[in-house]
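step: validate -> pass
step: tokenize input -> pass
step: predict -> running
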Amino acid sequence: MKYVELESHQSFGGQQKRFKHWSAVLDCEMNFSIYLPPDYRNKNLPLLYWLSGLTCNDQNFVIKAGAQKYAAELGMILVIPDTSPRGDKIPDDSSYDLGQGASFYVNAITKPWKNHYQMFDYISIELSELIRWHFKTNGKQSIAGHSMGGHGALMMAFRHPNRFNSVSAFAPIVNPMQVSFGKKAFYHYLGDEKEAWQIYDSCFLMEHYNNEPFPILIDQGTADEFLSKQLQPERLESIAQKRNWPFQLRWQKDYDHSYYFVASFIHDHLLFHHQYLK
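step: predict -> pass
step: emit ->
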């Protein structure tokens, strides 16, 4: 699987890189970013996938979160995919919560989206194989994300039992079947049959999960403008409590939905994952 390096920057002794490659799954060219810590030169390391939120690409987290310092200290590779297929021929929408930058990490089954919007398979299979073949890792991996990406991280972990050692999220959309962000995206990408929606809904997936549970950390700001109508993490917490799941929901007073919030607690999240990636 060929890929081309677009840029590389020295960062905390490691390398922050960006690549492009042709995606057969999405039928378009895709970019992804990766941080390789200093120890990458000498040993195989664990990795953390980061899935970003609505309107983001692979650069928002790289530039705004400040994660490289902590990844360098902990010896952790960071893999940051784009949030959707991109390009002039790729279907899009004028609203920010549908189309390019708003894939919700699903495999679309309706027109005009289905020919390109196969982000679940892109992250799960194609990009995963590219990373496995071209970068040295020790085989251990975890996943994290923000907002729509928090939904993606949780959902990916539930759908892939035993693949990820741990999961964390900032302000995730935990029950997309029941909130307007999710309903809109699922209707357009998946049609109106609710059974097709269930496999992408973290609350449904946790309720029906029959494998060994993985530890989950969620941070949620109390001043988040999307909290009451779109996020509602207490829904997932309620299911976790009933199932005795290793689950922690932390309420962060006065924090909003922005990357200022992510940057404030990203160290905690990398430390959380590090204990399960040793």
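step: describe -> The beta strands are 3-11, 14-23, 28-36, 45-51, 77-81, 137-146, 167-170, 216-221, 247-252.
step: cleanup -> pass
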